[in-house]
Amino acid sequence: MAGTLYTVFATVLADNPGPPERWERAVRLNAKARAGELSLGLAIGKEANQRASMEDRFGGLADAVLAREGLVVDQKSRDLLLSTIASAMDDASAKLTRNARFDYSPDVAALKYPAWESRSGAEPSGDPKAERIAVAELFDRWATYNADKKAAGTIKRYRGSIQSLVQFAKDRDVRLLTADDLYAWAEHRRDAEGVSPQSINKNDLVAASAVLGWAASRQGVSGR
User: Fold this and answer.
1) Residues contacting residue 164 through CB under 8 Å, at least 6 positions apart
2) d(Cα 52, Cα 34) in Å, to the nearest integer?
3) Which domains does the chain have, with CATH numbers?
4) In the predicted model, what is the mean pLDDT of the chain?
5) What is the crossing angle of helices 46-69 and 2-12, to 10°?
6) How many Å apart are CA 69 and CA 156, to the nearest integer?
7) What count of Cα atoms within 13 Å lies in the side-chain half-sphere of residue 21?
8) Which part of the chain is the Core-binding (CB) domain (predicted)?
9) What is the Cα–Cα distance from 175 to 184, expressed in whole angstroms?
């Protein structure tokens, strides 16, 4: 599953990766997360600090991946997923560092990430009367839940990104969206809507991760 994130970052941002220092810094931050140096220091013990740091750095991405696949995992499996996401982000950052220096040699690292056979391509329910949840409705639920938890500016910023996803996905059930769909949307944002790769990374993918991750949480499932 981490390979889907590698593809999104390493491919969508390849044409305009920005300065190489950005991605070198990302690798350093990834290393700090593994070492437990990004948490606020509230956790007790080295292992707890490492877990908190990994969650701070990669938890949103893990939530988005699990939400797209409709998966709920135990803590051990989540820890493993966070570790593989960290490795994938290292590989993506290394590639984008090369691209930023005009090195577009073959991407050997991509061979490490075979295509993921998504579970989310299946029908969300065998019941023909099952509720269909479109992206617009999911965002409205997320915004209502977070009205007193997130800054108004954050919700407004996310709404702009999600409105584009709504137009792209139309009335498809969010449980049928795959990583390929989000990748295609990111390309559409870049090529058809003229959004910079930096904005896609900083705003659009973060917004989608937050909303889809919430959908898979206890609060999102209950709608409260």
Assistant:
1) 185, 188, 189, 193, 204
2) 10
3) 1-117 (no CATH), 128-224 (1.10.150.130)
4) 80
5) 80
6) 27
7) 0
8) 133-216
9) 16
pLDDT value of position 216: 61
Task: Give residue 20's pLDDT.
Answer: 93
- CA pair distance 35, 144, nearest whole angstrom: 37
Query: For 15, phi and psi rounded to 5 degrees?
Result: -75, -25
Cβ contacts of 108 within 8 Å, gap of 6 or more: none
CB 208 within 8 A of CB 182: yes
Give the CA angle between residues 100, 13, 97 to the nearest 5°: 30
Task: Count CA atoms closer than 13 A to 30's CA, side-chain side.
Answer: 19
Task: Classify residue 129 by burial, with Cβ atoms within 10 Å: 0-12, 13-18, 19+.
Answer: exposed
Q: Are 135 and 169 in contact (CB under 8 A)?
A: yes
User: For residue 43, what are its two tokens?
Assistant: 């956790």
pLDDT under 70: residue ranges of the chain = 1, 39-45, 111, 113-131, 179, 216-224
Backbone angles phi, psi at 96, to 5 degrees: -70, -30
Taking the alpha carbons at both ends of the chain, their separation in whole angstroms is 28
Nearest to 53 by CA among 67, 69, 35, 74: 35
